[in-house]
Specification:
RmlC_Cupin_sf, Cupin_1, Jelly Rolls, about 500 residues, Seed_Storage-Functional
Length: about 500
């Protein structure tokens, strides 16, 4: 059946005999070149226009020019041209898709150059801003990097209220864990037909169940109030909304969405009176109030819902709690599910506070299950995380029996947020001039364990000697000499005596 194969160009039918190739006329070859040049010169056609590929035209033309072919041979030849064209198009599509995927990977790598660190001025959006204060919300964690899908449903917001301000009543379609970073406040929570008033001091933490109406008062005359609010949405994953019940035009009440007939029937109030009621407020959702109003909103000395009398207090204060670990180089305080806080157990959360002394560092360590969402409260320092997901493309092309690791680093300052996924070793270092204070919401803490690479009881020292020698290909006593030290968790940040005087590499 060789005589059925078309005598075409080398570009298409490679199985033609040398004798047949020699018979190709110069005219056909010139026609092929002219078709290509014409296609380039025309450029992009309009979307409604259709142009047949010049190479396909040439192939079909040569099929028709073969005098020795019968009509059946020519049809077979034309079918082969179409088939080869489809194969070429498929090959081009695959090559294009591969290039697009490669470009996308490169783009993601550029975007995720530092996927775990969030800048205050870049990664927060302002949801509310008035003369009295603001609410800023951190972007979804997965918008920063797909590596953070494990905490996709969590959102972090920062509320700032100036002295003697009132934060209007609202409720959220999310569970809220509120932490008082700075300032003094009164929190009003509507519970069982009355308002429970809770005083907040720096370090106080409280859980606000989804849907609970609340208001906030900055009761300090001079200092601003700063609250961190971890939202766990219960409606739309990764998204939360606030709903104002009492309100007017600004903030707008949720009741404004209902018809006047419905409101009149529900509230048994004439339309005119309702219109006057819902048109009064236009101060915004955070506004300044008088000293007398602040005093009127303060908790009474005896509250029926507070069984021991006096002012109702937050559920606990992490600054006054005894540290889990402390030495001269830093201290760690933890409050978690084991501290008989039922809502912490239900939400699978832990709150930790780390205070690293100036010129000191934490050990290199990682969590087995928990993801750390850390907010720098005060001080400056440095962060390093070891990440297997960010290894360079050049490294990945080499044949390796293990992954390569990328160092993610950032200089820390107040207002910054960083995330450390489980299994990722990391270290935090305080600057030479001030302590580094970090508050952490740790999620998925159930069964979590902390493993260290330096200090007392680190995982290398805990290995048996034979395993050490096999892992490092080095005598175990030499390995022990490197990893063993007396301190735990926090150390001075200084080079060994042999290296002092040289500049430390960050």
């Amino acid at each position: 059946m060789d005589h059925l194969k078309p005598r075409v160009s080398l570009l298409f039918l490679t199985d033609l005999t040398m004798a047949t190739r020699a018979k190709l006329s110069l005219a056909i070859f010139l026609f092929f070149l002219l078709a290509l040049i014409s296609n380039l010169a025309l450029g992009k056609l309009k979307e409604t226009e259709v142009e047949e590929d010049p190479e396909l035209v040439t192939c079909k033309h040569q099929c028709q020019q073969q005098r020795q072919y019968t009509e059946s041979d020519k049809r077979t030849c034309l079918q082969q041209c179409d088939s080869m064209k489809q194969e070429r198009e498929k090959q081009v599509e695959e090559e294009t898709r591969e290039k697009e995927e490669e470009h996308q990977e490169q783009h993601e790598e550029e975007e995720d150059e530092n996927p775990y660190v969030f800048e205050e001025d870049k990664d927060f959006s302002t949801r509310v801003e008035t003369e009295g204060g603001s609410i800023r919300v951190l972007k979804k964690f997965t918008e920063k990097s797909k590596l953070l899908q494990g905490i996709e449903n969590f959102r972090l917001a920062i509320l700032e209220a100036r002295a003697h301000t009132f934060v209007s009543p609202r409720h959220f379609d999310s569970e809220v864990v509120l932490f008082n970073i700075k300032g003094r406040a009164v929190l009003g929570l509507v519970r069982e037909s009355e308002t429970e008033k809770i005083t907040l001091e720096p370090g106080d933490m409280i859980h606000i169940p989804a849907g609970t109406p609340l208001y906030i008062v900055n009761r300090d005359e001079n200092e601003k109030l700063l609250l961190a609010m971890l939202h766990i949405p219960v409606s739309t994953p990764g998204k939360f909304e606030e709903f104002f019940g009492p309100g007017g035009r600004d903030p707008e009440s949720v009741l404004s969405a209902f018809s006047w007939n419905v409101l009149q029937a529900a509230l048994q109030t004439p339309k005119g009176k309702l219109e006057r009621l819902f048109n009064q407020q236009n101060e915004g959702s955070i506004f300044k109030i008088s000293r007398e109003r602040v005093r009127a909103l303060a908790p009474t000395k005896k509250s029926s819902w507070w069984p021991f009398g006096g002012e109702s207090k937050a559920q606990f204060n992490i600054f006054s709690k005894r540290p889990t670990f402390s030495n001269g180089y830093g201290r760690l305080t933890e409050v978690g599910p084991d501290d008989e806080k039922s809502w912490l157990q239900r939400l699978n959360l832990m709150l930790t506070f780390t205070n690293i002394t100036q010129r000191s560092m934490s050990t290199i360590h990682y969590n087995s299950h928990a993801t750390k969402i850390a907010l720098v409260m005060d001080g400056r320092g440095h962060l390093q995380i070891s990440c297997p997901h960010m290894s360079s493309r050049s490294d990945s092309k080499h044949d390796k029996s293990s992954p390569s690791y990328h160092r993610i680093s950032a200089d820390l300052k107040p207002g910054m947020v960083f995330v450390v996924p489980p299994g990722h070793p990391f270290v935090t270092i305080a600057s030479n001039k001030e302590n580094l204070l970090i508050i952490c919401f740790e999620v998925n803490v159930r069964d979590n364990k902390k493993f260290t690479f330096a200090g007392k009881d680190n995982i290398v020292s805990s290995l048996d000697n034979v395993a050490k020698e096999l892992a490092f290909n080095y005598p175990s006593e030499m390995v022990n000499g490197v990893f063993e030290r007396k301190e735990s968790l926090f150390f001075p940040f200084e080079l060994p005596s042999e290296e002092r005087g040289r500049r430390a590499v960050a």
